Amino acid sequence: MKSFLFLLLISLMSLCGSGCAVALVGAGAAGTVAYMKGDFESVEPYTVDEVFVAAKAALADLGISRINDEKDALSAQITARDASDKKVSISIKYLTDATSKVSIRVSLFGDESKSKKIYLKMREYFPEDT
């Protein structure tokens, strides 16, 4: 049920044009999700470490080459290049001990559909809800 509601919310986001600011409150494990000014942003109920591991796995699955990773206790940054040589940036920031903010940008001006694809693949690697 949670997956269905989450996919419904993502579908509703796609109805809005890429220049539109959208903020949706997700159900269950999904936090606030928004696409604004070229950045796909989400607040997730996972640590910086958990999101960092999920992001690296998602990029590997999608065949996106990581070129630089930086991480400390409060943040992480991944820089990568896709098959079209577009820059992919994933920023992860500490909010609380169990919550992180994720920001995904593809290319200079953003690519909503590719950012969403990366985000959805990342969600597959988030720890299961208990």
List the helices and strands and how they pair.
Blueprint: H1 2-14, E1 22-25, E2 32-36, E3 39-44, H2 48-61, E4 65-71, E5 75-81, E6 87-96, E7 99-106, H3 112-123
Antiparallel strand pairs: 1-2, 2-3, 3-7, 4-5, 5-6, 6-7
Helix pairs in contact: 2-3
In short:
With 130 residues, the protein is α+β, with helices and mostly antiparallel strands.
Domain count: 1
Shape: globular
Named CATH topology: TATA-Binding Protein
Amino- and carboxy-terminal Cα gap: 15 Å
- Strand order within the widest sheet? 1-2-3-7-6-5-4
Give start-end ranges of low-pLDDT stretches. 1-9, 15-29
CATH hierarchy class name: Alpha Beta
Q: Mean of residue pLDDT?
A: 83
Task: Give a count of the beta strands, DSSP E runs of length 2 or more.
Answer: 7
Helix content: 25-40%
Which class do the helix and strand fractions yield?
alpha+beta
CATH-level-4 superfamily name: Kinase associated domain 1, KA1
Strand content bin: 35-45%
Number of helices: 3
Radius of gyration: 14 Å
CATH architecture: 2-Layer Sandwich
**Element order, helices and strands?**
HEEEHEEEEH
Largest sheet: 7 strands, antiparallel
Task: Give a structural overview.
The protein has a single domain, classed as TATA-Binding Protein (2-Layer Sandwich), CATH 3.30.310. Helix 2 crosses helix 3. It has a seven-stranded antiparallel β-sheet with strand order 1-2-3-7-6-5-4, covered by helices on one side. The chain has three helices and seven strands; from the N terminus they run H-E-E-E-H-E-E-E-E-H. The longest helix is centred in the middle third of the chain and has 14 residues. With 130 residues, the chain is of the alpha+beta class.
